[in-house]
Amino acid sequence: MSESLTCDVVVVGAGMTGAACAWYAARAGLDVIVVDRGPVAGGTTGAGEGNLLVSDKAPGPELELALLSLSLWAELAEELGKEIEYDPKGGLVVAETPAVLDGLERFAAGQRAAGVRADPVPADRLAGLEPRLAPGLAGGVHYPQDAQVMPALAAAHLLHASGARLLTGHEVTRVLRARDGTVYGVRTPRGELHAPHVINAAGTWGGELSARAGVSLPVLPRRGFVLVTEPLPPRIRHKVYAADYVADVASDSAALQTSPVVEGTAAGPVLIGASRERVGFDRTLSLPAVRALAAGATRLFPFLADVRALRTYAGFRPYLPDHLPAIGPDPRAPGLLHACGHEGAGIGLATGTGHLIARAIVGDLPDLTPFRPDRFPDNPQEARR
Length: 385
Description:
29% of the residues lie in helices and 26% in strands. The protein is an alpha/beta fold and 385 residues long. The protein has an eight-stranded mixed β-sheet. The N and C termini lie far apart (43 Å).
């Protein structure tokens, strides 16, 4: 491409959120081009576990978005079939002590009031849901709405099914703006893409793309590791995690935090997380993080002590200071819309995000006030306080 191309919408980012934005925009009758400096699912999406969760979300706008997204994921699963490896496996959150269980049950009660299915599980019923769980746990809560997809497959199939033109290996070097400030497309080293709407679905690079449009969005990378075991017969039925995972998700700490999260996959390997720390884009293997993941997993499932871990990989969650994504039009740059900053929930929230973005473009304006991209101070240092 050396000449300019024209379309209705340019989506910057070929991860899961960008794919969902392309899908719903195309469904609304818009001509879409998706551009990414790397391959499809080459960023956070390719390093994710594919979680579609309500279990880890407190009542509020993110939970409402998660519930909408789950219903849309179920519709996509009907349409795309087994290609995205959609698995409505449910989640099980466990507490190791009575005090932690009390807190978990209070949290679940608030979720139930907000429309989540959250079923208390006494200690003597845990083995019925997960026979290989460690004995002696205080109890838990079962979340039958939790599900999983294979994220890279889901992004690739959704992009293909959308019919959008896909340009990989094209870095957006500038978001083009007219004299009146209106966005009219993007520039890449291979040419320009002209459109009245540009969607920032650049994940952890969403802040950098915003800067190239002349606006501020304080997206920061939050590193996480995942351990991958050798392939096993099905032994873990749900996504299982300890109750302190929810507190780690909501934490503002930059330091290393780990809490055990364990789940099987259709291919056989068990995925073990979760760690969080803010270290920029440093991919260096952290032995303390990996050891903590292994210790936490074997504490929940003792049989894993005899299972080989084949590899580990790192990914970066796009973190915003108030733990809510930026979704919707940016009044500072008319024509620019944001769909980034979902942290570790981007796969699960992608469908709802894409649906709302498409509605905003066609003028069916949803209430996106909690996700306004201009809600942060222009000074990134102020935003982190």
